[in-house]
Specification:
The protein is α/β, with parallel strands linked by helices and about 250 residues long. It contains 9 helices and 10 strands.
Length: about 250
């Protein structure tokens, strides 16, 4: 099993941008994922301004010699819009942003966290053109009981996408079991749900038994927080403990 990304989700404007680079500098596979949804992260908010500043620094930093991994996790009505073929205006500049020296996209991956109504009324023929248009970026769909039928239908279209296995649907509940890759060889798969610095090694043991030789990624959010705020020290410990597991099992 190979670990492609170690994702840290939901830093916000109370974290400094330098702290994000501290995490990125631990290992080239570290990914920072920011949550986007209308209202709390709309263009007139401090959180949106912070995300925009982070993207702009990644765009214009001429001293970046490798590509930093950044993802956007899209929620609520904005996710519904994208699944129906509409890119919200607030997200367009983030989707288009490129690193000036290399012209590579700053946001490499876009995760769609489907609300219940979106999954129930999903039309894959509306989402596929969006995925095809942004063909240099990876789209991720959460995979759980709510979205399984939608994922199956999208797979039938031949669209290129990745899957995040998260039985809790983003609620950070410990997984009762980890699922083997769905559509193996077709769609890369990551794992999320209750991952923490303390339990990442034990969960990697379990994931390795179902993932086999596949490349996977890990995504932690809720248990990286202290007092409901993204804790850079906990994020760093989670990353380092995942790397230590990998080193031990080479």
């Amino acid at each position: 099993m190979q670990i492609k990304y170690i994702t840290c989700s939901d830093p916000r404007n109370y974290n400094s941008i330098d702290e994000m680079f501290d995490l990125w500098n631990i290992d080239p596979r570290v990914e920072i994922a920011v949550q986007m949804h209308p209202g709390k992260v709309s263009p007139d908010t401090e959180r949106y301004d912070w995300i925009k500043q982070l993207v702009e620094k990644l765009q214009d930093n001429k001293f970046v010699y490798r590509s930093w991994n950044m993802a956007i996790h899209v929620n609520n009505d904005w996710c519904d819009d994208i699944c129906n073929g509409i890119i919200p205006d607030a997200l367009k500049p983030l989707f288009r942003a490129r690193h000036t020296p290399t012209h590579k996209h700053v946001v490499k991956r876009i995760q769609l966290n489907m609300p219940q109504k979106t999954a129930e009324n999903f039309n894959p023929q509306k989402l596929k053109p969006v995925i095809d248009f942004y063909d240099k970026q990876d789209f991720i769909i959460q995979y759980n009981a709510r979205t399984q039928n939608a994922v199956d239908e999208l797979h039938k279209t031949g669209a290129k996408f990745q899957l995040l296995f998260d039985a809790s649907g983003g609620r950070g509940i410990d997984a009762a079991e980890w699922r083997a890759p769905v559509f193996p060889g077709k769609h890369a798969q990551g794992y999320s749900g209750g991952l923490s610095p303390e339990n990442i090694a034990g969960n990697l043991d379990k994931i390795a038994t179902v993932a086999g030789n596949h490349s996977i990624w890990l995504d932690a959010e809720g248990k990286l927080k202290t007092d409901d705020k993204f804790d850079v020290k906990r994020a760093a410990a989670y990353i380092k403990n995942a790397l230590a597991w990998e080193q031990k099992h080479r």
